[in-house]
Task: structure prediction
Amino acid sequence: MPRVREPGPQTRHVRIRRRRRRKRFQRFRRFRWRWLQRLYGRQLQRLSLTVREPVWAEIDLDALGHNVRQAAKMAGPARVMAVVKANAYGHGSVQVARAALANGAASLGVARAGEGELLRAAGITAPILIFGLIAPGEAEKVLDLGLTPAVFDLEQAAALAGLARKHPAGVHLKVDTGMGRLGFSPDRPEDILKAAGLPGLRLEGLFTHFATADDPDLSYAEWQLERFLATDRLLREAGFAGYTAHAANSAALINLPAARLDMVRPGIMLYGYHPAGSPAGNLRPVLSFKALVAQVKAVPAGFRVGYGSTHVTPASTLLATLPVGYADGFSRKLSSLGQVLIHGRRAPVLGRVCMDMIMVDVGHIAGVRPGDEAVLYGEQGDEAVWADEVAEKTGTISYEVLCAVGARVPRIYRDTLAPEES
Ligand SMILES: Cc1ncc(COP(=O)(O)O)c(C=O)c1O
Result:
């Protein structure tokens, strides 16, 4: 018989202590609730239950699915490799990869082995090509996980071939046709043929990357494509067959139909942006960046705002402080330049962007209160501030604006994953 310990008689002293502790906890919860209500006011009712942070990014996976289907439709018989490197351009690689595959992408492209490993750990079994360098210590794991390396020079190809055990390692051979970055030179066909024929390797793909496919003058991209097709012919004439030839990024997919080949590799257009920064036809931006208003204060003329007091109010106004800053990816270059949306109207950033806070002028917007939702990138009412506008203001490209959304910003996913007609 197992021995059961009888609960000892509770002393009056212990019971009183427990009751006091319970009451203290209840008092704390009541206080916390009143404090939250004061801080966030009516917004508490309106906020989705998923918003539990002062700053967040909303990822619209339906928009992503729509963009993937647009790319697939444009690519025609060519397959789509969804480029999900750099945490899917800041959108969250696992969720984006799943949504892209559910909407017609056949495979995924990443820059690093660790990015592929993360996708495999999430149970994604689709082919994954690693575009970039695989460190010597990562190569075995890459092969074990069934990730596909890109080979770009003879020495690296030979090292990889040496690691292949039971079967040859499937690889994509990268040719530098004019990007001036990574890859075999088409002017050294002997290296290309030697690498492709290494006993430990199986040639599954041949690819290149365009430098200027977003340029209105496509002559250089066309020249790159010719060099790529010459390398393709070289390999086929040498007896290599059954591999996938691919070259087109978003810009080439849109601008250079001849580059679609067997497969295309769109990145930025899946996230809703045209590669050249101009508004893309039928694409929908996927990421919105939002924050709650922390404080609103009436300030007189001559009030100094932020580090360096670089802004001094010319007249009395209302100042809203938002709990987001350059540590979240809201560029410091937006100091006294950026605009956010509050109540569907543009509120200019006043003074310097801090690490965790910005101040905006809401003197012209009625009824702004702590807890109201501010949109840093996205739309609200009839207004929109998308990443390409921010990129133009800060002298960069939408890619960088999206990738910069900080790791501490939680991503909240809106999705049905139901492929709809578009
Ligand atoms: C090798 C490769 N392919 C495809 C892409 C996707 O390019 P984009 O985002 O311009 O479509 C990239 C991104 O830079 C890349 O490095």
Summary: The chain has two domains: 76-271, 286-414. The pocket of pyridoxal-5'-phosphate is lined by residues 83, 109, 131, 209, 249-251, 265-268, 275 (CB under 6 Å). DSSP finds 13 helices and 20 strands in the chain. The domain at 76-271 is CATH 3.20.20.10 (TIM Barrel).
